[in-house]
Each structure stands twice: as C-alpha cells, then as structure tokens.
Amino acid sequence: MVLFKRTKTVSDGDWDVKNLIAVRKPIIEPAPGCVPRAEEPLTAEEEQKYKEVLQHFQLPELQLPTTEKHATEARVLSMEEKAWLTRECMIRYLRASKWVVRDAINRITMSIGWRREFGISCFGEENGDSLLAATVSDENETGKEVVLGYDREARPILYLKPGRQNTKTSHRQVQHLVFMLERVIDMMPSGQHQLALLIDFSDHEDVPKVSGNSKTPPISVGKEVLHILQTHYPERLGKALLTNIPWLAWTFLKMIHPFIDPLTREKLVFDQPFVNFVPEEQLDKLYGGLLDFTYVHEQYWPSLLQRTRENRAHYMARFRELGGHIGLSEYALRAHGDKST
After folding, report:
1. Which of 54, 104, 117, 125 is geometrically suited to a Cys-Cys bond with 129, CB 3.0 to 4.6 A?
2. What is the architecture, at CATH level 2, of domain 21-36+136-302?
3. What is the pTM assigned to this prediction?
C-alpha cells in the first residue's frame, strides 16, 4: 500500500504585480463569500450523550487534575476554563471518542490537566497563562510560523515553514507551536471551530544556518506534537496542505504515519494548487495568491498579539454577558452584535 505519493511541487502563481496586495500584518476576517461549512445537527442519541458530558462538568464539587498524567493535585474549574468548555468543545471530544461518553469525559479531563501544566488554561497571559509571548518570540523571528488569511471555508490558516528554522531542537519549539495554535484559534470567526495548516518545506537562503537545527524534527518531537494535536486539539484540523517536500521529510512522514489517526490522514493534501482551497486574496503569492507578504517580526508579532488579545477579551466579555456557565456556544461567544446563539 502506498502511504504517501509524491507529486509535482506547487509553483508560484501566474499573477500580475499590479494586482498584488502588500501585507505585513495578520488578516482579520475571511474573504467575502467564504463561510464555515454548516454543521450536521446531532441525533437524539448524540444530544443525550452530550448532555451527560455537560452534566458531569457542571458538578459544583468537581475538581480536576493540574497535570496530564500522575496528578497529585486537583482544583475546581476557573472562569476561563468554563469558557473553554463550550458545547462545541465537548462535541469535538465526543466525536474523537466515537461518542463513548466515559472516554470523552476522561479525554477532556486529561486535556484540562495538560493545559494547566503547559500554561495555557487561562485564555492568554493577560489572564494568567504562564506560556508567554516573550518566551517564544525568538522562535518566530524568521517567520517560520505565521497566522495569515482564511481558506474557502473560513478556516484561519497557520503557515508552517520548517525551512525558516532558526533554533536548535528544544522543548521551546513545541511551546512555540502550541502558542501559535492558540493564536490561530483566537482568530476563528463565529461559526468556525477548525483551522487549516499550510506546510512548506522549501529552503530559505536568507535564514542563517544554526548548528543543531533541522527542518525535519526528530521522531521524538514529531510524536510529541502528534500526541498534542490528536489528544488535546481533537477535530480542530480541517485541512493540511503540504508542499515542496524533500525526500528526508517524506521519510519522516512515512515513519510517523502509524501514529497519525485515520481521520487526520484524510485531511492531508499533498502538492495540490493551494488556490483550490484558499482564495487568491487570502493566499501568499508564493503559492499562487495575491498577498505580497513579507515577514517583519517587529511589525507582524505585535500586531498578532494585539489582535488576538482583543478577540479573547471579546470572547470573555460575551461569556460573562451570556451567563458565564459551561456549555455556551463558541459561535455565540465569537459573534458580534446581538447574536446569542
């Protein structure tokens, strides 16, 4: 069986210079006409299972672990954690657990412990997160991870560019990825709960070589990242577009293939034109789009932090306004105006 098949690489688009759109900061909304795909309504049985999960986490005396594994301490849910425990969040875990209620509860419990341990349980450092922008800022100085634009189903796009790697392999690289995943979630519009990944393995001559770094991470790091994505961000990935994959990266992909769950494999797209999935006006010109994007850390980074901080503040304000309880809809929490559902 062929696990991965290499095809042609994605080349520059056939664009006219005068039509290019100069961009140095994140794009704040999808292109006109790009809307999230409508969710299928739950069956009566699925709705009942959701209510069972909801009732478990609504227990006033409930205390949850402070680490992913081997927790010896526990505490009640904070307001920010209640805001994270939305209707859609619990349904994502139920789907990932094949609608087995106990498994979904256990997975959510483990994720809450992991989020506390990793330092991202408070909805941003302004609310008490210990994973700080300053901790990972150096990792992003070359623009190796960028939140930019939305695909045709209004998913915010996280660009991953291993060829712009500027640091040695370390746990901070994993922290950086998690930090950026949280920021791309901050950029989701109302009605959307998934993200898109655009992964380009191209070399970049303007990035200084650092001894001990590699655009293809060690298997151990790859497995840790996969564990985080599949365990603690279930049903978040809508599409992953990969291009310019060298033979070493293909080897890496084949090695980690057994650790990728079947649903995730179905979302991987190799070396297809990105304009099939992303409107031109939301796509970097390197991939056939119209965005003339140049990463300048001093411009992009503060803008991303400010915009996502504003979005989190809006989300939490809506959470309080709508009652501040577990099980509110993310769509309502992200909505603007008087929308309450």
Report:
1. 125
2. 3-Layer(aba) Sandwich (3.40)
3. 0.90
